[in-house]
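User: I'm new to structure prediction. If I give you an amino acid sequence, what do you actually give back? Let's try with this one:
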Amino acid sequence: MAEPPAKRVRRRNETQTNPGPSTAQDSQAAATQQLPADGVRDDQQTIQSCNRQPSQQEPTPQPPQPRPGETQTNPGPSTAPTQQLPADGVRDDQQMTQSGSRQPSQQEPTQQPQPQLQPRPDNVKRALEADANERAEKRKAEATVLKDQGNQAFNKGDYTRAVKLYTQGLESLKDFVVLYTNRAQAYNKLEKFTEAMEDCRTALQLEPKKVKALVHLGKAQQGLKDYEAAVRTYKEILKIDEKYEKMVADNVKRAQEADASERAEKRKAEATVLKDQGNQAFNKGDYIRAIKLYTQGLERLKDFVVLYTNRAQAYNKLEKFTEAMEDCRTALQLEPNNVKALLHLGKAQQGLKDYEAAVTTYQEILKIDKKYKRMVAGGSAVFRPNART
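Assistant: Good question. You get back a string of structure tokens that encode the predicted 3D arrangement of the chain. For your 389 residues, that looks like this:
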């Protein structure tokens, strides 16, 4: 029959009060005692727990020690405010001391940003001016080297290369006046007078009293046959400095001579055209038209001797002997040994019945050239109208 529970408790208490030697059976029974499946201790264990002596203290549970190599973590939630670490992850002692001793009522002042230093406007201006001056000096040095190289090419007569080098110099420094005047001089040598004039005018815009620019401008104007403009340009030099008087006088003289020669050539060309047209009319027997064309030719060039002799011959054909004699005498004043003038003069004298004068005139021809002896001996001029000059 099973022992009642109350009796078992009394007997166990007695045993604890007067402990006796434990048997192996009791030790085994205590070791093998387990909790029920539902986690509730049985009545015997509960009674034993209640009858435990107060002097016996249960050991305080110790937290599990970390294994070697593991980091100990705090499993519970932390109520302390999170403290920010500096960038390197370690707070220095001063920060920790200040943090610990800071009064809660005191508020830390907000740190103001340091003001940025701004450069002064006058310093910036001086820096920019210094940089601009340095760049200008560098460009001028490059342009000067190209100018010297261009001068060497010019002195060797290589005007095309000189122009190229002067142009490169102007690309480095576009307001370098001497490069414009030097290039204008090279253009004049190449007879590129329009380009030379443009360079001279640019130089005069940069430096209005540049004498070399005026000299080369005058020469370019001469090259373009504008002699009057060239003379005016040369005279402008005297307004700048009278020491150039001789140079100006020489240039003006050359310009005027060239102008006169140019005009004479032009007039002679026009007169020659009219002479040829007059000869065509004469050969066709149209003496009146021939005289008209010869006269127009003489209006272009009044000292064109052949026009006088040809018109005299046409006058003789029209039996205008007086007019013919006048033209022959004018031709002989311009050219005393002109044989054709003497021939047509003798013919006119014959037409006027002045035979003695005609013989005297024909004999004058023999003094010039005896190949006309046969013609003179006959007492009359043998002249072929178709043999025109």
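You can read the tokens as a compact description of the fold. Here is one thing that stands out. Residues 146 and 168 are 7 Å apart (CA to CA).
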